[in-house]
């Protein structure tokens, strides 16, 4: 349940999606074409706060591609005209971006994933919680 400090549901940005991404349900559902593994990036519509918990539910998936969902955070404001075709390696190797793959066994239909960022001693920690499993991903 959303408390008094709740910022409301997070939505995807209409202006910051790859050409193979379609948004629906007032920006709360992102779908992608399966014709290509490229141009499937979707950014959120607002800044994520440190320790703000985000929850996503996997509604559907395809077996056409190796790999699964990637979650990323950045301190750089993305620009529509410069969205790269892929998060890895394009954003994963770019200063100011942190992109982590979510293990495929967590990306099953109906699974809810919760993720958030935290800082500890100058280290960025990305936490992913799903299927009673917590992953800590550290970035210097």
Automatic annotation (TrEMBL):
InterPro entries for the chain: B30.2/SPRY_sf (IPR043136), Neuralized (IPR037962), NHR_dom (IPR006573)
Alphabetized GO MF terms: ubiquitin protein ligase activity
A GO CC term assigned to this protein in UniProt: early endosome
GO biological process, one term: ubiquitin-dependent endocytosis
PROSITE patterns, A to Z: NHR
Domain NHR: 9-140
Name assigned to this protein: NHR domain-containing protein
Organism: Sinocyclocheilus anshuiensis
Organism placement in taxonomy: Eukaryota, Metazoa, Chordata, Craniata, Vertebrata
């Amino acid at each position: 349940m959303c408390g008094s400090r709740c910022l409301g549901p997070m939505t995807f940005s209409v202006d910051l999606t790859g050409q193979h991404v379609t948004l629906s349900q007032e920006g709360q559902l992102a779908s992608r074409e399966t014709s290509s593994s490229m141009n499937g990036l979707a950014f959120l519509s607002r800044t994520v706060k440190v320790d703000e918990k985000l929850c996503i539910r996997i509604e559907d998936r395809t077996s056409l591609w190796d790999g699964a969902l990637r979650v990323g955070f950045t301190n750089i404001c993305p620009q529509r005209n410069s969205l790269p075709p892929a998060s890895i390696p394009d954003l994963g190797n770019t200063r100011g971006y942190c992109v982590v793959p979510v293990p495929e066994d967590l990306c099953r239909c109906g699974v809810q994933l919760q993720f958030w960022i935290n800082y500890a001693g100058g280290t960025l920690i990305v936490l992913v919680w799903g299927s009673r499993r917590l992953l800590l991903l550290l970035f210097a």
